[in-house]
Amino acid sequence: MPIKTQNLRVAKMQELTTPAELRAQLPISEAASLTVEGGRNAIQRILKGEDDRVIAVTGPCSIHDTEAALDYARKLQALRVECADTLEIVMRVYFEKPRTIGGWKGLINDPFLDGSFAINDGLLAARELLLEINEMGLPVGTEFLDTAVPQYVADLVSWAAIGARTTESQIHREMASGLSCPVGFKNGTRGNIQIAIDAVRSSAQPHHFMGLSEGGQAAIVGTSGNPDCHVILRGGEGTNYDEASVDTFCYTAEKDGIRPQVMIDASHANSGKLPERQPEVLANVGGQIARGDHRIMGVMVESNLVAGAQKLGGEGPLVYGQSITDGCIDWATTQDCLRELSDNVRQRRGALTRKAS
Questions:
Q1: Other Cβ atoms closer than 10 A to 272
Q2: Which residue, among 338, 325, 295, 335, has the nearest Cα to 143 in the 3D structure?
Q3: Between vectors from CA 200 to CA 344 and to CA 217, what angle results, nearest 5°?
Q4: Which of 242, 249, 295 is nearest to 269 (CA)?
Q5: How many CA atoms lie within 13 A of 97 on its CB side?
Q6: What pLDDT is attached to residue 351?
Q7: CA–CA dist 171, 178 (Å, integer)
Q8: Which of 341, 299, 290, 339 is nearest to 79 (CA)?
């Protein structure tokens, strides 16, 4: 008898619901589909320079409590309506969290926060939340980490991100080439912008790779390429949101044949991993916009109902509306920052009008 050589370290294997089964259980509604289409179209116009508004991807570092997420969404939708003339506000709804070594990996992976890894329940909770937020009229953005996840929820996503740890990954570039929404690639964790530029160029090309069909079968996926990709500056060993950094990036991008435009992540290394410094970053970026810079077409903000972060598994119940991953700014601060950014866009329009006259 041959010696067993397969799955020697696999302790458990459970059947996963298929994308088709999940979509049949929670089909996209007409209201949600209109929100998704509207969000995607608006972001595409901004990327092409046909709309002078600024994209603002704003929301919790990660979703762990869907009720708190819905409370946040209601507030953000009201602010979206208020700032509609200047900002395309998209709610950050992250279900997957990359981990350097270990820790909670997000709502899809462990929805009950107890190490039960009920992924089928996590996929259901994620899709249900996306439906509810879109039905409010609020587009959503998320990070795609596991390349199987888009088949389950991507029809409800208006914008997607590829994180700093996976921007250089071939399989994520291939996945992005087939996504139906615009995609932002972050620069590397050490600040390397070239890998993000290369990712944008790669994702614009057609690809063929192994993937998952809607029926849950292994499939050969062929894509046509995604022309709506861009770079996100998130800092590295230092910050890269200042005017000189934007100049350097846009010069390199144009030389390499992609649009000289950028989204700025106010969190992560750009804030020195101090969430309370995000308003400082946004004020600097807003100043550049107010002075007439059209290359900055978007920002990202980590924001929640309550400021800061808390540890999962600590003593006592979790604080409602506070992150269990990276720290965030609170809702009041978020409103102030986005209203100021909205004013910056108006100032840029005024500067252009004065210049034209």
A1: 14
A2: 325
A3: 120
A4: 242
A5: 20
A6: 74
A7: 11
A8: 339
pLDDT tens across 22-51, in order? Answer: 999 999 999 999 999 999 999 999 999 999
Phi, psi of 282 (to 5 degrees): -65, -35
Q: Output the six-digit token pair for 195.
A: 């890998």
Query: Other CB atoms closer than 10 Å to residue 13's CB: what's the count?
Result: 7
SS (H, E, C) the chain: CCCCCCCCCCCCCCCCCCHHHHHHHCCCCHHHHHHHHHHHHHHHHHHCCCCCCEEEEEECCCCCCHHHHHHHHHHHHHHHHHCCCCEEEEEECCCCCCCCCCCCCCCCCCCCCCCCCCHHHHHHHHHHHHHHHHHCCCCEEEECCCCCCHHHHHHHCCEEEECCCCCCCHHHHHHHHHCCCCEEEECCCCCCCHHHHHHHHHHCCCCEEEEECCCCCEEEEECCCCCCEEEEECCCCCCCCCHHHHHHHHHHHHHCCCCCCEEEECCHHHHCCCHHHHHHHHHHHHHHHHCCCCCEEEEEEEECCCCEECCCCCCCCCCCCCECCCCEECHHHHHHHHHHHHHHHHHHHHHHHHHHC
Please report the pLDDT score of residue 352 as a whole number.
Answer: 67
Contact criterion met (CB below 8 Å) for 172 and 149 = no
Position 135, amino acid = E
pLDDT confidence of residue 310: 97
Q: Tell me which residues of the chain have a pLDDT lower than 70.
A: 352-357
Write b or e for each residue in 52-89: b if 16 or more Cβ atoms lie within 10 A of its Cβ, otherwise e.
ebbbbbbbbbbbbbbebbeebbeebbebbeebeebbbb
pTM of this structure: 0.96
**CA-CA-CA-CA torsion for 300, 304, 307, 313, nearest 10 degrees?**
-110
Q: Which of 356, 323, 307 is nearest to 107 (CA)?
A: 323
Token reading at 38: 């509207």
Confidence at residue 101, expressed as pLDDT on a 0 to 100 scale? 81
pLDDT at residue 355, rounded to an integer: 65
What is the per-residue pLDDT for 356?
62
Domains for the chain: give ranges and CATH numbers: 19-356 (3.20.20.70)
